[in-house]
Amino acid sequence: MKPDLSINFAGIKFKNPVLTASGTFGYGYELADLIFLKQLGGIVTKTITLEPRFGNLQPRIAEVASGMLNSIGLQNIGIRAFVEEPLEKLNKIGAPVIVSVAGASTNECVETVKILSKQNGISAIELNLSCPNLKKKIVCHDLPLMRDVIKGVKKVSKVPVIAKLSPLVTDIAELALAAQNAGADGVTLTNTYPAMAIDVKTFKHKLSTVKGGMSGACVKPMSVRCVYDSYGSIKIPIIGCGGIMTGEDAVEFMLAGATMVSVGSASLVSPKKLINIIDEVENILKEKNIKSAKQIIGMLNTVKK
Q1: Are 241 and 223 a contacting pair, CB within 8 Å?
Q2: Percent of the chain at pLDDT above 90?
Q3: What's the pTM value of the predicted model, to 2 decimals?
């Protein structure tokens, strides 16, 4: 018997627990010729802002051992252009759509979500409160500001609101609890890790912004720890993110407490990796004679620490 991969996250039904990660899959529809997008649990768009952003200067991607650095700077076409074309194309795919939203202020986030709230076909909002390569401070590092943003967006959103948090804090569980108390329906743990790289041939930094966000296989153990630490402190569900390259990685996050996972760098290697990960999760559950993916969520946290 095939295990049941379906998941309920904040009242949303997903056919499996594997999502794309924001910023690694374009707006979500561009790769339709390469993989059958309807097979995915859901699509998380690249981050959208109220007005268009041109992003940071090149170079803004650099390969490092077991991962990569990026400093894209949230380049995007802005919310008005997004609802005119990409969202329309996303609605034809048949997979749940989670729109990632960011802003430099509470008002920017609220106004962006107001526009989205008039549209159909959106399953949830993922608030990017943790982008590490903007000139201004990371929103979730300012707790009063984070609370204002979440509360403001919740008032105008017609769908669940998920807070994407930064791992660069003393206590990630405390931050996740603060997001829950502000009204978030779920959290994504985590975003990339601040890092930098230097080219010893040129004696120059590899990114135009000097520092950027590190992702890839090398960050997985740190991100799994963030999920594990937060799971017992909050009641809202978690999307685990960071370094998921295989089905085993996805299962590891779920055992630590993630209800779902979002896959980023792996899809840059090959978009088909997403489908492979779904198949591998199913095979692992089948080998363990586990009937449902829901059964393994937080299983490791039932073991006394």
Answers
A1: yes
A2: 85
A3: 0.95
CATH code: domain 7-57+73-194+215-302 is 3.20.20.70
Summarised one tens digit per residue, pLDDT across range 135-153 is 567 889 889 999 999 999 9
Task: Pick the closest to residue 30 from 6, 17, 46, 51 (CA basis).
Answer: 46
At residue 207, φ and ψ (nearest 5 deg) are -115, 145
Q: How many helices (H) and strands (E) does the chain have?
A: 9, 16
Q: What stretches of 87-237 adopt beta strand conformation (E)? A: 97-101, 124-128, 161-165, 186-189, 193-196, 198-199, 204-205, 211-215
Cβ count near 289 (within 10 Å): 8
Q: Name the average pLDDT for the chain.
A: 93
* Helix/strand/coil (H/E/C) assignment for every residue in 92-128: CCCCCEEEEECCCCHHHHHHHHHHHCCCCCCCEEEEE
Name the residue ranges covered by the structural domains of the chain: 7-57+73-194+215-302
CB 273 within 8 A of CB 267: yes
253, 233, 260: which is closest to 123 by C-alpha?
260
Catalytic positions are 131
Pinpoint the alpha helices (H) of 38-105: 79-84, 86-90
